[in-house]
Amino acid sequence: GKGGNLGYDFNRLFFSMHYKVGDDAFKYAAQTWERVVKSRHAFNSSKDEFLSFELSTERDFKTHWQTVNDRARTGNFAVWAGHLLTHASIQDDHNDGIEFRSDVGEDGTLRSSEIAPLPVLPWRPESFLVLAGCNTGLSRAGWNPGAAFAQHQKVTTLGQTGYAYFSEKWHTYSAKTNETEICLWAFSRGKNAFFGSGGRLAGRVFSA
């Protein structure tokens, strides 16, 4: 096996981007994922690097995405895994996508037409991108975020198949209290299933 990145002839870059909110829930979920992904992928701190960003607006997102691209290319990293912990929407007027706060010159919604021109990160065939926002694996107005990122970034992308909730457990829903070890995922409950079991809903995987 390839313990750490022993056996790899490249260094790996991991990243997460989380939406800024008052109770830091997205931040805690991002930090939890960072710990998990480092463990599962034998993160080697002497060779690998993890970038974490907090964001509020579309402009923040595009700036941070460019930063990941610049760091990967100047540092000769392969981007191994990324995680976007944000809001997302499906709206009746089809004006939907990945959601941020509105800002000067921006309405706060990242659409397919804005995903397409993002710099293509130097992914590997084994790389993956996770979208934690609500319904990011479901179609809306002829498109969905998971498919758009997979198509334009040429990376395997996982989107949610329902509304996402913060949970203290990974495999079944457990209401968030004041714990900081939490995940953001779609579970069989609430808006997804009124009498649901609380079990974790399988993400939808879009191939590169």
Order of helices and strands: EHEHEEEEHEHEEEE
**Could you name the ranges where pLDDT drops below 50 across 5 or more consecutive residues?**
none
Q: Looking at the chains present, what oligomeric state does this protein adopt?
A: single chain
- Please outline the major beta sheet: 6 strands, mixed
CA-atom Rg in angstroms: 17 Å
Total strand count, please?
A: 11
> What class would the helix/strand composition place it in?
alpha/beta
**What spatial order of strands do you see in the largest sheet?**
2-1-3-7-8-11
Globular, elongated, flat, extended or rod-shaped: what is the shape?
A: globular
- Beginning-to-end CA distance, first to last residue: 24 Å
Report helical residue fraction: 10-25%
Strand content: 25-35%
Mean pLDDT: 86
Number of alpha- plus pi-helical segments: 4
How is this structure best described in words?
This protein has 208 residues and is an alpha/beta fold. The chain is 22% helix and 26% strand. It has 4 helices and 11 strands, in the order E-H-E-H-E-E-E-E-H-E-H-E-E-E-E. It has helices spanning 25-40, 58-74, 112-115, 145-153; strands at 11-19, 49-55, 77-85, 87-88, 98-99, 109-110, 123-131, 156-159, 164-167, 183-186, 204-206. The strands form 3 sheets. A 6-stranded mixed β-sheet has the order 2-1-3-7-8-11, sandwiched between helices. Strands 4-5-6 form a 3-stranded antiparallel β-sheet. The chain has a two-stranded antiparallel ribbon with strand order 9-10. Helix 4 links the parallel strand 7 and strand 8. It is globular. The two termini are 24 Å apart. The model has no long low-confidence stretch (mean pLDDT 86).
